[in-house]
Amino acid sequence: MADRLNLTKYEAANVFEKNEIKWRNDNNINLDNNADLLKNIDYRNKIFFEEVIKNPIFFIKKFIKKTATMFILDPLWVHESFYVDKTDPKAINDPKSYYNKNIYYKIAYSMFIYFFVIIGLFKFLKDFFLSKKKSDYSKFLIFNILSVLYFAAISGLWGNPKYLVPCMISICLFFSSGLTISSKYLQNLVKN
Q1: CA distance 37 to 110
Q2: Would you call 25 exposed, middle or buried from its count of C-beta atoms within 10 A (0-12, 13-18, 19+)?
Q3: pTM score
């Protein structure tokens, strides 16, 4: 709504809040009642989907950006989430730079990992589409690809790497394959 009506995100949040309070009052919604709480959740989902339909380009760009952010691997996420001081004035006044101070290291780390993942994935897809008979292992890897895509579709809007953790084993299958292919290539290169 902020993008569509050229408002700040705070102004748009105020509009949403006022409309929701009016809707709750008009429909006698009591948030202490579970049934009413579910109605309120349905109302929010309806409003969300209406906004997506009214501004699909913004939603697609936002979804791609957040999903890309989710795929930035953060090996120190647990440490940072426990030991970062969220009350620090820098965290309050400039959260973007405070929480992303190590972003370039994380991107470099991710690019290193995904380099081998992409090699393994392309090799698998090439073999999969060229073979006539599909092995059980090939079907298992297809399931893993679909699993990663599912998590990206469901959790992508949050843009948090912790939601990618269930996919790490699936990603590691392709990483190990890509690393093996690369090491064999380097061995052959050195021999020749």
Answers
A1: 40
A2: exposed
A3: 0.74
